[in-house]
Amino acid sequence: MRLDGKGLPVIAVSTLTAAGLAGRGLAQRVLEKSLPRPSELAPPAPSRPEDIRQKKLMSRAAWFSALVMRGALEEARWDEARAEIGAFFGVGASGAEMDEVARLVAASMEDGQFSLARCGREGLDACNPLFAFQIMNNFTLCHGAILEGLAGPNAAFFSRGTGTVTALEEACAAIMSGACERALVGGADTALHPVTMAELEREGFLRQGLTPAEGAAALAITSTAEAPLGYVEAVRVFPVERPRGTLVPRTGVLRDAAVPAALDALEDQPCDVVVLAPWGAPAREALLDLPQVLEAELSVDTSLTLGESLAATPALAWAVTLDLLAHLDKPRALVLSAGPDGDLGVVVLAKGGA
Amino acid sequence: MKRRVFVRGRGAITPLGETWPASRDALAEGRSAVAPVQHFDVEGYPSQVAATVPFPLGAWGLRSDKPSYAPKPPLDEAEDRRLALARRAADEAWAEARVSAAPSRIGVFVGAESGRATYRTIFALSRAAGGGARFDHARFGEDARALATAVHAAAVSPAAVASALAARIGAEGPVETISLACASGAAAIVSATQAIRLGLCDVALAGGVGADVDPFMLVGFGLLGALSARGVSCPFDLRRDGFVVGEGAAFVVLAAERGDARAEVAGAARTLDAFHLTAPDQAGDGAERAMRGALDDAGRVAIGYVQAHGTSTQLNDAVEAAAIRRTLGDALPNVHVGAVKGAVGHWVAGAGAIGFLCALEAVEGGICLPTAGLTEPDPACVLPHVVGAAKRKPVEAALVNAFAFGGANTSLVVSRCA
Fold first, then answer.
1. Reduced to 3 DSSP states, what percent helix, strand and coil does chain B have, rounded to the nearest 5?
2. Of A119, A349, B129, B231, whose CA is between 20 and 30 Å from A254?
3. pLDDT in tens, B111-148
4. Cβ neighbours of residue B393 under 8 Å, at least 6 residues apart?
5. Which among A55, A54, A72, A11 has a CA at the least distance from the CA of A216?
6. Which residues form the domain of A243?
7. Chain A residue closest in CA terms to B162
């Protein structure tokens, strides 16, 4: 989707990474490679809600999402008419606390075997009865929306990369169509959940250089602003052909798809900065030549420093890019994410300011 | 000028029928598929009934003659039930649509939540992590990697359904998985509609699937107090006391080209309650805004039928009924209201999609499907309900509601093609 005029203004950004909760300044640390290694996050307050029932319903990703939503809203100073604000997020399926599952299973054992009858009698009493709700993917979006009073148009897209780009596409469409004037858009996820780790291992991602991480980012976009951080000029998801039965395309196919996708999104405009978010070595290799083809002055690989946090990865790359454009005083950047879902997400961002 | 979005094909597999026509005919008679759970031991569970699909489900291009709940192979090698259900419904819709478009102009939009790992998997993962009541992350790191090859993780992923359907029909356009709990299926149809309107694709397979008749969901919903203790789903009835879990899949094929379509998606809207994760806003503001948004988007249409979300829970039904009354106002006497969950249970991620098919039936076939289980309407839920069997009348346009845990609301308007 190519947006009319200058594009849609982004007026605030909030990120949560191993470096902590931050609005801006992430780009400099990415350039300096001074970020801590991707690891399990210990986010600062405000943390999970006080309401114990709500807390029990809240997965880590939901918690991360709520934090960056609050950060973006505060930076945007969107204190009024929050019920009209839209919310579009890429979300993962990294759900239930394993402690809960482990307790249920341990209490359900009989003669060394899992017993459904015993599960019904005793297992259920051993775990948080609300844990099933931690695995509902939309709760990653809805917790934050409830805590912050966001009640506008919305959608939660399951994402291993491009779902988050689709969230941005739908947020832009909602603003362009007048369904809302302001929206939060982003992603939150953890690749460190045991079931997700097992899944990534099974599919061979870990052996091929995927660095599992967790994180979140939210951008506040609006229909008009006088001095925004930047503008979204174009956003598009490019499906990439892959062999039947595999999740990711071959390196050569991804390479062949990347250049036309980038040129299509840029529509002949020059591009000073290229920000890449490849999931691992094969995707990185496929995108290697892109900065040169686009004659970009600078190329940054956010996955090398921030790791792969699945639904959060593209949104973190956008946040870093907006920061880079301001920090380096460059007019335009192309952000290309190639997540473990195999498709390409392309976003063109322009520098803001008066 | 918005691009028009025509409905070219429909398909469903439900606890009442293997196809949409078979399901529709059973629904029109007011039948219910709710019955005691047979495929696992429900002793001690908060609810012991469900609406399950009793028909054999062919596996994904592998098996075609196994009973739906045949003994499982080790770990998660058995096909994810969501995939089997979705394939059946999508095949039916795709065959009926007879559309042609370049692969890059065909999109797939699916409302789905995560598939469920089997108990064998959960058990194995737990044992790898020490097997005690505490999850031992360190031990898991050492031991569980070896298990990874035995976890059918790709099937557990929410995106597995959309990816598999895209491969099946040769779609190379947008492939999206919308995870909005009980509103997912309807929200997927909204996303597909928007994608066609924006020109991102010309044809879209859209719908939802739910396969949640499993111990985790019976436990989760049951302990929350959301399931019927009586084991009856009777939306808007005075005796309603919760919903019954169901399963199934429903899909439509939408297209920018009219072909021989008789109906189109005229309006769509999604809102959030921003109130509570598991309870609706008692004021019904979010639900009302979703309905009004869809009606505004549709322009001037005369609503003749509403397919309500109708969960059969005390609060939800009363809140929705009041919101429908406020939204439709003076037009209410011309409307009939039905809710499909009394017949086929609550499909969670697939619920909105089967609701859409019911609304479509009113517009295309003039069949206003009834609310099974409803015999004594609650005075708090006064609406022009369809009770007993279906009512037949010409319907110009119908409204569909899907409201989710987490407070996400979706409404759609489907109308007869002018």
1. 35, 20, 40
2. A349
3. 998 765 555 555 565 565 555 555 555 555 555 555 55
4. B304, B336, B366, B368
5. A72
6. 230-351
7. A158
- CB proximity A95 to B under 8 Å: yes
Of the partner residues A103, A137, A146, the one whose CB lies closest to the CB of residue B407: A146
- Chain B residue numbers touching A61 (CB-CB < 8 A): none
Residue type at A179 in one-letter notation: A
Cβ-Cβ contacts under 8 Å, A195 against chain B: 117, 125, 151, 153, 156
Domain boundary among A171, A202, A222: A222
Minimal-distance CA residue of chain B relative to A176: B198
What confidence category does residue A334 fall into, taking pLDDT thresholds of 50, 70 and 90? very high
Whether A315 and A206 share a structural domain: no
**Within 13 Å, how many C-alpha atoms sit on residue B165's CB side?**
40
Distance between B182 CA and the closest CA of chain A, angstroms: 10
Q: Residue A241's closest chain B neighbor by CA?
A: B172
CATH code, A59: 3.40.47.10
Q: Which helix (H) or strand (E) holds A16?
A: strand A8-17
- What angle is formed at CA B117 by the lines to CA B110 and CA B244, rounded to 5 degrees? 65
The torsion region of residue A25 among left (phi > 0), alpha (psi -120 to 50) and beta comes to: left
Contact B346, B233 (CB under 8 A): yes
Q: Which of B131, B178, B190 sits opposite A157 (nearest CB)?
A: B178
All residues of chain A having their beta carbon less than 8 Å from the beta carbon of residue B132 are: 102, 106
Kindly determine whether residue B148 and residue A201, on different chains, have CB atoms separated by under 8 Å: yes
B271 to A1: CB separation less than 8 angstroms, yes or no: no
For the stretch A49-101, pLDDT in tens is: 556 666 666 788 888 999 999 999 999 999 999 999 999 999 987 566 666 66
Last residue of a domain, one of A176, A201, A222: A222
Amino acid at B96: E
Task: Read off the pLDDT of residues B317-351 as tens digits, 9 standing for 90 and up.
Answer: 999 999 999 999 999 999 999 999 999 999 999 99
Query: Looking at domain B6-115+157-416, does it have CATH number 3.40.47.10?
Result: yes
Write out the two tokens for A59: 């997965």
The SS3 of residue A268 is coil
For the record, the structure tokens of A122 come out as 């005793």
ipTM associated with this complex: 0.83
Query: How does DSSP classify residue B181?
Result: G
According to DSSP, the β-strands at A109-110 and A332-338 are unpaired
Per DSSP, the residues of B46-108 read S--EEB---S----SSS-SSS-TTPPPPSTT-SPPHHHHHHHHHHHHHHHHH-----GGGEEE
Q: Are residues A302 and A255 in the same domain?
A: yes
Of A83, A173, A198, the CB nearest to B153: A198
CA distances from A121 to B42, B44, B144 (A): 10, 6, 28
Q: Which of residues 101-140 of A touch B (CB under 8 A)?
A: 101-103, 105-107, 114, 116-117, 119-121, 124, 126, 129-133, 135-139
